[in-house]
Amino acid sequence: MPYCSPLDGDAHASVGAINEAIRCLMSRPADQTRAEQYQELLVEWAAACRLGAVCWTTSA
Q: What is the DSSP letter of 9?
């Protein structure tokens, strides 16, 4: 199963790209790997928001 990555070769992902990666990840069965990747994406999302991006979340 490929990793849901927001980077596509860029050093820093946009909030929108990170949100898309989270959606990709959430479409997969729950397991330990998905939980770890989700945690990593949330850290990236928080870092992108600190850089002045307009941040929003979607409800599940």
A: T
Contact between 47 and 17 (Cβ < 8 Å): no
44 part of a folded domain: yes
Which residue range is the domain that position 5 belongs to? 1-53
- pTM for the whole thing? 0.68
Mean pLDDT, the chain cut into blocks of 10 residues (60 residues total): 59 77 89 91 81 53
Tokens (6 digits) for 17? 């790209």
Q: Which sign, positive or negative, has the C-alpha torsion 32, 48, 54, 17?
A: negative
Alpha-carbon distance 10 to 35, whole Å?
23
Closest CA to 16 of 59, 2, 58: 58
Whether residue 45 lies inside any domain: the answer is: yes
